Amino acid sequence: MGIKEKPPGDPSGRLTLASLDEAAAVADQLSKPGALDKSVNWARKHSLWPLPFGTACCAIEFMGMVGSSFDLARFGAEFVRFSPRQSDLMIVAGTITNKMAPVVKKIYQQMAEPKWVIAMGACASTGGMFNTYSVLQGVDRVIPVDYYVPGCAPRPESVIYAILELQKSIGQESNIMKSREQHRQTWIKGIHGRGQSPKSRILDQVKGKQS
Question: How far apart are CA 78 and CA 72, in angstroms?
Fold first, then answer.
């Protein structure tokens, strides 16, 4: 369970996330500057609606995460939706091919603000073992990624940890009513980072020599 240390209103010094005590602590600060941002962030981080984009074995681990053994519902993120207009957290679980990349990007664009992305597993994060012409070498080449979960396939606990870290960052956000999409686009490594993959650069060199 996610735990906060020594929160107000809890003499034990331990507080389960999204408990009534935490809500009371947020309500006590409503008269202070920036209280609206904190209350909205508190509601957002405990009501994530994931959209699983599962294409391979990582999707099976996602099913285990939302099952009764790990119970993602404890953290307020169990309301899985398969419509992008009803979701705010995309979890890319599995290998993404170059043919599938435009579909992933289109679904991401259809999601309403605010929205976040978790790349689950090695294939979604870097292409994994499939360093081939047909596999996208990381979903961050087409959409911005907030958190990467390593592993092949990662354990459900790893994804839950990423969601808890995402909830922490949501709780600390500012300018929450302002769209961040323009800034998020600069995070896409395919545009302002890694650029082309090493294999594509080698192929370009081979083509140059042949010509």
Answer: 5
107 within domain boundaries: yes
Q: Whose CA is closest to 135, among 144, 150, 124?
A: 124
Give Cα 139 to chain centroid, integer Å: 12
CATH of the domain at 134: 3.40.50.12280
Question: Whole-angstrom Cα distance, residue 54 to residue 100?
Answer: 12
Residue 68 lies in a domain: yes
The per-residue pLDDT for range 111-139, each reduced to its tens digit, is 888 888 999 999 999 888 888 888 998 89
Residue 31, in any domain of the structure:
no
Angle formed at CA 55 by CA 51 and CA 59, multiple of 5 degrees: 65
**What digits encode the pLDDT tens for the residues 166-187?**
888 888 777 665 666 666 666 6
Interatomic CA distance for residues 108 and 90, integer angstroms: 7
Those residues whose C-beta lies under 8 Å from the C-beta of residue 69, and which sit 6 or more positions away, are 156
Q: Could you list the residue range(s) of the whole structural domain that residue 117 is in? A: 48-210
- 136: amino acid identity, one letter: L
Q: Give dist(CA 24, CA 18) in Å, integer.
A: 10
Residue whose token pair is 């909205």:
40
| Number of domains the chain contains | 1
Sequence-ordered list of residues with C-beta below 8 angstroms from that of 175, at least 6 positions apart, any chain: none
Q: CA-CA distances (angstroms) from residue 155 to 95, 151, 164, 165?
A: 17, 8, 15, 16
